[in-house]
Every structure is written in C-alpha cells, then in structure tokens.
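Input record, target 12 of the design panel.
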C-alpha cells in the first residue's frame, strides 16, 4: 500500500510542478495582444501562452535603430527579442508560424531567434504601434546591421499586425 501512495504522491507532485511552471509565466491583466501555441512548455491559458503589452514590456525590451523598406528614413523600434520570447515560453521547435490579425501567416525559422536577430516590436519612435501603423506587434530585424538582413526572404518574414505564433517541430 505504501508503494501506491508514494506513486500517487509522485504523480500529484508532477502535476503540481507543471502548474507552478504555468503560473510562473503569469496571466495577462490587460488586452491580449498575442497568443503562442504549439511546441511550448510554459502556458498560462489552457494550451497556449497569452501576452498583453505589460508582459512584453517586462521582458527586457531592446531598441533597434534601422531603416526599413516600408518606412521613410531611420526608425527606432522597441520590442522583445524573439529569442527572449521563445525562451519565455520554453519553445521546443524549429519553426515559428507567425500570423497577422487577418490570418496572413509566415514561417520564421527558429535560427532567426538569436541575440541581435529578430525583434517583436511594440513601439516605433517612442509611440505604440497602432493597427494602422503595422501594430500592435511587428517582427522586425536590424536590417541596417547586416546585408544578410537585407534580402527578400527576411523582408517576407517581417510580418506586422502579429496576433498569433505557433511553434512547430
């Protein structure tokens, strides 16, 4: 009988540990801007991880100063490095399917989620990104930092009005 109690307790401990991990992500208290699903370890809403602006702002945002092919002159973007966001949810995949508000979807390889790489921007030039101005979230790259970021492939991954991401294997 002691063995079965120990086994049951171990099973419950495993469930409790999972619940703690989910709680560590925190729950959004404001408007949900983005939902991440798929091969992720940390969730806060069923099988997904949801984020509001305050949660994104709390993830050590970076500032990227760069020109883009969609804007005039050099812009200053502020946002969460994609690598940091993927670490936050415990991403376990090789691809990120990023979808816009209108369900347009692009594939971003996990290799783009590196230090100095893609950023999920929520501000441009000190102002929050509105839907009209490619917001509220826009995947940008530091285009001016490397010729590697100045290609049609990378420009195609620079999706705006991001609302969902799905991490796939």
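The sequence produced for target 12 reads:
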């Amino acid at each position: 009988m002691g063995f079965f109690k120990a086994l049951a307790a171990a099973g419950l401990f495993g469930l409790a540990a999972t619940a703690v991990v989910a709680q560590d992500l925190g729950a959004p208290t404001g408007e949900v801007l983005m939902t991440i699903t798929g091969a992720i370890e940390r969730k806060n809403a069923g099988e997904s991880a949801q984020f509001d602006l305050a949660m994104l702002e709390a993830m050590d945002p970076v500032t990227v100063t760069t020109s883009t092919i969609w804007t005039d002159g050099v812009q200053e973007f502020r946002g969460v490095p994609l690598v940091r966001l993927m670490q936050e949810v415990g991403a376990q995949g090789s691809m990120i399917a990023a979808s816009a508000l209108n369900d347009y979807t692009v594939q971003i390889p996990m290799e783009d989620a590196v230090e100095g790489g893609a950023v999920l921007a929520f501000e441009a030039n000190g102002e929050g990104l509105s839907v009209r101005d490619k917001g509220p979230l826009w995947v940008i790259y530091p285009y001016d930092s490397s010729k590697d970021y100045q290609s049609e492939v990378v420009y195609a991954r620079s999706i705006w009005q991001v609302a969902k991401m799905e991490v796939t294997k």
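Confidence is low (pLDDT under 50) at residues 1-23.
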